[in-house]
């Protein structure tokens, strides 16, 4: 029965290769499995051997590659574009607000100005990375991917990122409050203070939108192509990967896995795909993929 189970598993894996979350993949695989075993039971009742029954059942289910296209998830190609738009808008608002505080308040806010410049550089590099990934995604959209790397709809992996974004946003709010208090002490009118406060609120809103866009798992498929691996923020060609390892983390009594890549050359002004979250159901598939590419495990 082991060989039959492997055939069924291969069929289910192929049929669900373009599904991006483990939850949805499990639902669809359970549904397909019910149909397969229903056929098997029917054929076995007719006196057909178990091996032949499995083969006939899978044949009746159709081509798994054709099924995979019907279950294909959306990749949210415009998510990066909106992210870039909000980053550029944020950079513009930050630059504008620094000029306003200098002109209206007439004070030298060295700490907040330095912090704003640092944040601008950080987000500018983020935008550059996203634009590169966007161009590569457009180029690769003309070819068929091998499969999607599955993650989770609501992942505990993102708790650390959410905490970081909350701390980051709290820091931004504190800096803006320092600006506001300093402006208040400088004797500005209520109209001028209200205007500066409005700019601050817009800045916080933009930070919040970008933080949600960066750390939300929705629509951030890691896609495996013949040329390499495309994630939300970067593309890594196979020839630049010298090794990999699969890290396991236990969170709330549940095992989570990450694919960590060792690169020959670090990308400039772009994120490296050094830590890609993967579903436990794809561990064997990932290992077989790297073995086929002659890339060895370094862990």
TrEMBL record:
The reply on keyword Transport is no
Recorded hits in InterPro entries, A to Z, give:
Perm_prefix_1
Q: Which domain of life is it from?
A: Bacteria
Q: What organism does this protein naturally occur in?
A: Asaccharospora irregularis DSM 2635
Transmembrane annotation, as ranges? 81-101, 107-131, 161-183, 195-215
**Which keywords accompany this UniProt record?**
Membrane, Transmembrane, Transmembrane helix
Q: What is this protein called?
A: DUF5673 domain-containing protein
NCBIfam families linked: perm_prefix_1 (NF038403)
Q: Does the keyword Transport apply?
A: no
């Amino acid at each position: 029965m082991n060989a039959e189970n492997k055939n069924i598993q291969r069929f289910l894996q192929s049929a669900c290769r373009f599904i991006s979350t483990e939850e949805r993949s499990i639902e669809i695989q359970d549904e397909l499995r019910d149909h397969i075993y229903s056929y098997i039971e029917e054929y076995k009742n007719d006196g057909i051997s178990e091996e032949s029954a499995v083969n006939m059942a899978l044949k009746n289910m159709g081509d798994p590659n054709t099924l995979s296209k019907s279950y294909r998830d959306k990749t949210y190609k415009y998510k990066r574009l909106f992210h870039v738009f909000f980053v550029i808008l944020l950079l513009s608002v930050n630059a504008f607000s620094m000029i306003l505080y200098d002109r209206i308040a007439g004070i030298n806010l060295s700490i907040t100005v330095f912090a704003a410049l640092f944040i601008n550089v950080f987000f500018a590099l983020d935008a550059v990375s996203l634009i590169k990934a966007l161009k590569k995604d457009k180029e690769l959209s003309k070819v068929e991917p091998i499969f999607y790397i599955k993650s989770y709809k609501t992942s505990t992996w993102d708790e650390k990122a959410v905490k970081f974004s909350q701390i980051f946003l709290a820091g931004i709010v504190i800096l803006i409050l320092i600006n506001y208090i300093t402006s208040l002490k400088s004797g500005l009118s209520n109209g001028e203070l209200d205007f500066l406060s409005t700019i601050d609120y817009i800045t916080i809103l933009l930070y919040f939108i970008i933080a949600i866009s960066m750390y939300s798992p929705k629509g951030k498929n890691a896609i495996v192509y013949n040329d390499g691996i495309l994630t939300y923020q970067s593309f890594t060609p196979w020839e630049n990967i010298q090794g990999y390892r699969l890290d396991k983390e236990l969170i709330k009594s549940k095992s989570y896995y990450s694919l960590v890549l060792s690169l020959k050359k670090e990308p400039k002004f772009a994120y490296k795909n050094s830590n890609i979250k993967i579903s436990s159901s794809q561990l064997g598939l990932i290992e077989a993929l790297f073995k086929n590419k002659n890339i060895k495990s370094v862990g």
